[in-house]
Structure formats: C-alpha cells, structure tokens
Amino acid sequence: MIYKNNKTINEWYFNDAELIKVYKNGAICYYKMVLGETPHQEPCFAVVDDITQYSDTEFIDVYDKATDKWYKLNNLDQYEQYGVYGEGRNITYYEGKLTIDNGYEYEWDGSEWSNLGEVSGSTVPDNYVIPFADSTVKSICVTNWGGNVVAGEITYGEAKAVTSLGSVFKSNSTIRKFNELAYFHGLTSLANGEFQYCINLTDIVIPPNVTTLGNASNQNYVPFKECSSLSGLTILSSSEAIYIDQIWGNNSYWQNSSHSNVPMIFPNRPITLGWTFGYADNLNNVYFHYSTPPANLANADISIATKLKNTYVPIGSYSAYNAVLSSFNKTVIEYDFETDSLGLLDKEKEWIAKTQSVIVYPKYYTEKDEPENNVVFTDMTDALAYQCPWVGMDVTIDNTPYLFGDAYEWLTKYGLFEVSGEYICDSGDKYEKMEEMVRNVDGTWSSQIPAVYEKGDLIEAGSSDCSSRLPDGYTEVEYIENTSSAYINTGFKPNQDTRITCEMQCVTSTNSVLHFGTGGWDKVNGMWLTYEAGVNGTLHISWLGKTVWSTYSSVHGDYNRHTYDWNKNNIYKDGVLVASNTYANYNCPDNLAIFTTIFNGTSYETSLKMLGRVYWFKIYDNGTLVRDLVPCVRDSDNIAGAYDLVNNVFYGSGNNNRFVAGDPV
Fold first, then answer.
1. Neighbours of 240 (CB within 10 A)
2. How far apart are CA 24 and CA 146, in angstroms?
3. Could you report the per-residue pLDDT of 457-514, keeping only the tens digit for each?
4. pTM assigned to the model
C-alpha cells in the first residue's frame, strides 16, 4: 500500500511547463510560467543547502542538499521530511502526506485523512541503507554481513540474508540499542545465547519472521541471560505463530525489584509458551495482545512469577484468559489495544512502519550551480537563454548594464547603484533613462512603466515624495568614514540567529583591518569579519574557546565597495556565498562594533581598526530588523554618525575621535 515515487521532479510536477530558475534568499528557486488571460509565475520548489537555516515559506516543497531529502511545508509552517511517519495523524499534515497509524496507511487529501488500507508486506528496497542508532551495533553488522553494496554500510538486502547471528554480540558490554534487528527478516530463531551478558543492552526489536525465541534446555542457549538492563524487548506482531521459551536466564531484568512496574508485552500473533516466566520473579504486569490465550499458558511457569498481579488481555477475551489463569490467583483485566491509551504499542508501530515501507523520494535532477555575477551577454536573446539568474545579479547586455530584479526580470540599470550611492528619486532625467522590462509569455520582453531602485528597494515611478527619511535636525550623507580610531557601538549583542548586512569600503589601508566585530583579540566569545594581510580575508566566530569558523578566502583585500551579508551561518560578499558552516549556538557577551571590536564591556581594538567607509548597516535578530543605521550629520553640532531608523537613536563615535562625512544625499 505504500506509494513509491520514482519520477523526476519536473515529471512529478510540471510536465513540459517552462521553468524559471532564480536565486533568492540563499536558495535556488524554481517557478513555472502559467499561461492564460493573466500569465504569471507560480512557485514550484526550492533547493537549499541546509533546511534548518531556511525560513522562507513561499514553497511547499523544498529539497535539502545537506540531508539529500525532500521536505514539505506542514500546517505549522514548518518543513518536515516528506514520506511515511509513524507518530500518528494529528500532529502535522499537508496535502499528499502519508502516515502509518495502527497498521493502516492514511493520506491527507487537503481536508481529511483517507484510509488507504491495511499495511502488509514489505516495500523496503534491497539497496536501502539501514540507519543505526548505536554505532557499535552498526560496526558489528557491517563487519560481519555488510559493506558489499555500500562501503561502510549494511543494506536491507544484506540484513535479510542473515539466517544466524552466531555469537558476534555475545558478552559485548558496549552495545545499548539494536532495534534495527527488525530488518533481519531472514532470522527465524533466537535460541542460541546470541545476546548473553550484554549487560548494557536496553532496547531490541525481534523481527516478525522469528518463530522460536528462547531456549530452556540449557542456560548457555538462553538468548538474553544476564541482560539486566533490557527493559525494551519488543516482539513484532505477525500472522506467523511463535514459540517463546526461556528468554531471560539468571540475573534477568525482572529479578530486580525496582523494575516490578515495567510490563512484559506479548505480540498480536499465535503464541505457544515454554518456561517463559522463569527468572521473572518481580514481574507485576503482563499484556497479551492476541485474543486467544497462548498454548501451554497453564504450564508456562506463570506461577513462578510469584509477584505477577495483573494480566491484561484484549477486549472480549476476559473469559478465555480467566479460565486458564484463575487457578493461579492472577487478576485478568481487559485492555483496549485499539486506542492504546498507555502507548504500549508505539514502539512496535514505529518499527512495523519502518520495516514495511520506505518512501522513494523524487529525484533531484539538477545540481545547484554557484551563482555568477558580472556576466556579459551579446544581446537580450543571449541573456534570456541564461539558465540561472539570481535576484540582484549584475550583467551587461549589448554594452548596457542590467540588474535581475526581484520580480524575476532583467531591468536596465543605468544609474542604479551608482558609485556615489546617491538616491535618484529627485533626478527626473534618470526616470526617463531607466526602464522596467517584463517577460512575456512568448519569451520576448516588453517595456513597462519606468522604475528605479533605491539600495535594493523599488520606488514607484512618478513618486513625488523625495523627502528625507531622517527626522529634522539630521542630514543624510552618502557615507561616514573612519580616518583614525572612531567606531560605532551598536548596543547589540550578536547570537547564532543574528544577520548583519552592510556596504563598506577600505580607503587608506587593507593591511589587517576589522570591518565589524565583538569579543577579544583571541576571538574567544566573539565574532569578527576582518581582512588579514597575507590571508585574503577571515571570518571568525568563536564561543567558549571553540572556533566555529576560521579562515576563508576572497572576503576582502581591496579598495572597492563591497556588500556583506552575514546571515546566521552563511556569509555572502556582493551577493555571492563565500563562507558557510554548521549552524551552532553562541551568545556574544559584548556589543557589536563597526570599524573595530568591543571586548570586556568597554574596551575596543585599536591596532586592527578599519580605515574606511560605511554606506549603510543593518542588524537583524532572528529575522527582525533591530538596527537600520543611516550615515548622517547631526545639524546642531555638525557631528557625523549614524541614525537608527528602528529605534530613532543617533550613534556618534564611541570615543573622542570623529567620523568624516560624505556628501549630503
């Protein structure tokens, strides 16, 4: 009943529809052209490097390169792995989601769960690599039976070919969990001391094909003798009958009085018992899932389990069980295994689902290209043939500068993002020069209303509002420049969810300069973006002495203006990813400074100060803008600094040195 999807993503979704590939918010995004009366573009799917760092919810389907898996947006606006889940149906959902619940498969159709029928058989492919929770168990399995299909791994096909475990696990005090034994479908017997003296083994799942479990003929054959920690023995239900003899042996889990309230659960399958309850002196509660009492129950030494108080049986089975157990003075109680209010079957359900079904994800058919910039095209036809533009990409088309806009079309650039950085809303002639190009359904381009970009933000054409964004008493300037030891204390302490975007330029020297940072010179408890001579750029995050990021190349090292985007664990220079690392928690104890770093509360670095300019500077805390610093001059005393549009605060230099102001805007 489990659906498998072997189609490529374009077959799965879009047939022959034209796909547009765009870089946006650190992801590669695919849109399709929708024809009709109002042609438009619809989001198809996105490809990201790390799903844990992707917060955009524009796309329902996202492929994560870090895990090589597909994710879908659920009803909680969270991305969860696409496929079969064993946790139940009422947590998260999305259209097309499949889940296993109590042995049945369900699909969410957009409004309700549809029962697709009982799960039966196995759809696990032979080349499926089994994931292990216990590295020691994995190593033993790979060494003895795996590694032939995938180096260093054991596949389902290799596991199910195993017919005997031998003694490879015996007396191993390191192993703790072996729930993956459930995949070993070739095993029919565990009755030869396989796990004796595994004193730290806590969890194991017996596969459904095992029909003989335990052996009372000789203590050397008892499979879990001396397994004093084994509380999580789960025997999978099956249509096949099983003979359960002596499992525990001396020093069993239930010989310890502190374990008396932990129940023993028998599977939903025909059972014959042997000396099953031997060495279970402190067992209080037993659950029989099968409606018919086990054969030989009266002779299974249930009387030896002297402290056994309650026997729980399925609804409607009281009379059958009580007829056998009443003479042993055992209480029989009916338990609803269907609703399973105690969650006794959760683990069994999980492993039935895992070993009967594996979703085959849609194949990711195009590798993610690294974004290019400053590409030269001979004409617009050449530009339209380019496969992977990205928002903000600078190109030259027929000797004319163009920018790829956030509406996914090429815009003539002309005065956009001029070296001066001046706004252009007060220059009417530039309105005439700039032209917004919109892509038609047939692939041609049409001129629309004039449009201008103000540092990345679209200003409606024809707008007459060119008033200052700063309050009275402040004059906006193109930049502020540090020519000595001036710096700005932003008053913000960065953490793992901080994003910093800015535009800066070295002017006097590129010899070991610190653009912005927080923390001491040794980079402990801090984060720095610096240029260090001879290294061509460094990015540092250190926390409690652990360097999360170290040296990266191509960060800076010249006298040109550059934009930087430090977004959590990714660093972009001029829109191009230049550094990335694993997302890690940290909280800096000192405030972030511009042109230097602050450490020990108030001290600041002077030897690595940056002699240069800042054109704009923004700080985000987990997506929320908390600082929007605009270079300006305070009119009352002619002091240059930066005005924060978020908190309406003016930041001058943190010491007696002053900034030099650029031209007024």
1. 12
2. 42
3. 333 333 333 357 899 999 999 999 999 889 999 999 998 889 999 999 888 765 667 8
4. 0.47
Q: What is the pLDDT of residues 578-591, one digit of tens each?
A: 777 777 777 888 89
Kind and range of the H or E element at 311?
strand 310-314
The domain ranges of the chain are: 9-118, 164-346, 375-459, 474-661
Alpha carbon distance 241, 282 (integer Å) = 27
Mean pLDDT rounded to a whole number for the chain: 78
State which fold the 474-661 domain adopts: Jelly Rolls (2.60.120)
User: Is the pLDDT reported for residue 649 higher than 80?
Assistant: yes
Longest dimension (CA), the chain: 103
241-255, 509-523, 650-664: range with highest mean pLDDT: 650-664
How far is residue 326's CA from residue 317's CA, in Å, rounded to a whole number?
A: 14
Dihedrals φ, ψ of 400, to 5°? -120, 130
Beta bridge partners of 422: none
Determine the Cα angle at 144 with ends 143 and 148, to 5°: 70
Phi, psi torsion values for 638, nearest 5 degrees: 60, 30
Other beta carbons within 10 Å of 189: 18
CA angle at 377 for the pair 371 and 383, rounded to the nearest 5°: 70
Task: Please give the backbone phi and psi of residue 319, each rounded to the nearest 5 degrees, phi first.
Answer: -60, -45
Place of tokens 């960060």: 555
pLDDT in tens, 101-131: 777 778 888 888 888 877 665 568 788 889 9
Those residues whose C-beta lies under 8 Å from the C-beta of residue 241, and which sit 6 or more positions away, are 211, 269, 270, 271, 272
The secondary structure of residue 222, as a DSSP letter, is -
